[in-house]
Amino acid sequence: MRWKSDDTYCFASFWFLRILGLAYLSAFLSLWVQLDGLIGSRGILPAQDFIEAVRNLFGDRLLTEGIWAAPSVFLFGSSDSVLHWGCALGSFLSGLFIIGFAPNLTALALWILYLSFTTVAGTFFGFQWDNLLLEMGFLAIFLPPLRVC
After folding, report:
1. Which long-range contacts (CB under 8 A, 24 or more apart) does 99-105 make?
2. Which of 21, 26, 35, 82 reaches 20 to 30 Å from 130, CA-CA?
3. What tens digit of pLDDT does each residue of 99-130 get?
């Protein structure tokens, strides 16, 4: 069977986005299991300590400069329950992404959430695959066609 260029694009983007969704799901579920021990309030590097340091450093400039230096939705709340809800939301959004629900918006939300965890977890997210997931996730925001293939 010979593919047209539109068919090839749709085929490739369909499978790429589904596999990327599985990678996000794996990342969020893996983090969820380890969350308390790594960045929880009693973890090795508590997220709350990092957020407090960022708030102290930037003070009144948190929303203008701090958000660019330490991009994270957790600047506005970093309790253990908020972090767990972040993992739950990431897992849920990954499922939506896998089934193809609003892929552009879902990709954006997943990227922001994973970047937020990467920022507050620091050392634990310094591996190549974490950066690759962020890079691929950012590019995936622009990949899905706005029309159905």
Report:
1. 100/14, 100/17, 100/18, 103/17, 103/140, 103/143, 103/144, 104/141, 104/142, 104/144, 104/146
2. 82
3. 999 999 999 999 999 999 999 998 898 889 99
